[in-house]
């Protein structure tokens, strides 16, 4: 009862600050080379692989952008099968000898990481130096800065390729829909090269009389 309402003063328009902490296309154009930007966009639109050398350029640009936003750490952000998200935080920091250090974030740290699962009790099933899974960068979801941390959306998979999260099956399903739908679309337009699924099942369901439904072949498909 004694709590006072918090008054929030908006000094700028919401449209001006919307997406300012997201490494979107606008941010990539400013901080990536032409080849790096093209490589990321091709990975997003066509699913092409990103070369390791290009990944180094991307990580450098992403790091510079994140530091300009006040970030001091980065994390691979993923959704394991626990009903919650998970993160492993590391600093943009590496010693270089002679009592000196530098901010470092390379393509290797961007593309793949090993969560701290190697230190979990394993009951003798596996060696402690063997990871149970790896996180891999998902370029289709933009990185963003939250507080002082650069959050990199990733998938979580086992060494053998099995999905250990909720996102990898989704991406595989989208790829399967793309392949099947593109093949169908080519019957009508040979220029179709990709289909993007942006909607899931409709929320409304209707009960229809069986006789009426039988008169509508499109409903019974």
Mean pLDDT: 85
According to DSSP, the number of beta strands is: 8
Instruction: Report low-confidence residues grouped into runs of 5 or more.
Output: 118-124
Give the terminus-to-terminus CA distance: 58 Å
- How many H/I helical runs? 8
Task: Please give the oligomerization state of what you see.
Answer: single chain
* Helix percentage range: 25-40%
Q: Which structural class best describes the helix and strand composition?
A: alpha+beta
Shape: globular
Supply Rg: 23 Å
Order of helices and strands: HHHHEEEEHEEEEHHH
User: What is the percentage of strand-forming residues?
Assistant: 15-25%
Biggest sheet architecture = 6 strands, mixed
Description:
By secondary structure, the protein is α+β, with helices and mostly antiparallel strands. Helices cover 33% and strands 17% of the residues. The strands form 2 sheets. Strands 1, 2, 5, 6, 7 and 8 form a 6-stranded mixed beta sheet that branches. Strands 3-4 form a two-stranded antiparallel sheet. It is globular, with a radius of gyration of 23 Å.
